[in-house]
Amino acid sequence: MTDSASEDIAMAADQMMGEATETSEAGVVCLPEELGIAQVEACYTQLVEALSSASEVKIDASALKQVDTAGVQLLYAFVQEAGKKGTAVSWAAKSEELESVSVQLGVAEGMDF
Predict the structure, then answer these.
(1) Measuring CA to CA, how many Å separate 113 from each of 15, 49, 69, 86?
(2) How do strand 28-30 and strand 34-35 relate by DSSP bridges?
(3) Whole-angstrom Cα distance, residue 38 to residue 86?
(4) Residue 63: pLDDT over 60
(5) pLDDT band at 27 (very low <50, low <70, confident <90, very high)
(6) Are strands 22-25 and 28-30 parallel, antiparallel or unpaired?
(7) Domains parsed from the chain with CATH numbers
(8) Radius of gyration, CA atoms only, the chain
(9) Please, what's the b/e burial string for 67-98 (b: 16 or more CB within 10 A of its CB; e: otherwise)?
(10) Within its chain, how far is the Cα of 103 from the centroid?
(11) For residues 70 and 20, what is the distance between their CA atoms, to the nearest angstrom?
């Protein structure tokens, strides 16, 4: 995925609406059970807050059961942007669904699972 595509994804994610994603502690983002186009905006907000307040961001995807292309694109763009800013991203817990969809979309390697 090109830098331009990542920027486009981040801009699109900023415009989308959705349900809240929890930040349970500084730098830890807990993904909701469903991360689709309807949830991307709220998730984006939480990811940006975590990125601005921590030197490392941990993503907990243990509750994630359903993810669509928009959700994967948001997470991919976030991981890439965090890397550019020197912020480490790690996965506190993974989701088989997220890994599977990431592989199908060809972005799994860039997700730093």
Answers:
(1) 27, 21, 17, 17
(2) unpaired
(3) 29
(4) yes
(5) confident
(6) antiparallel
(7) 3-106 (3.30.750.24)
(8) 12
(9) beebbbbbbbbbbbbbeeeebebebeeebebb
(10) 15
(11) 16
SS3 29: strand
How does pLDDT run across 72-110, given as a tens digit for each residue?
999 999 999 999 999 999 999 999 999 999 999 999 999
**Category of 109 on φ-ψ map: left (φ > 0), alpha (ψ -120 to 50) or beta:** alpha
pTM metric for this prediction: 0.77
Estimate the share of the chain in helix, then strand, then coil, as percent rounded to the nearest 5: 50, 20, 30
Cα 40 versus chain centre, distance: 9
Q: What type of residue is 70?
A: A
* DSSP-based three-state secondary structure for 23: strand
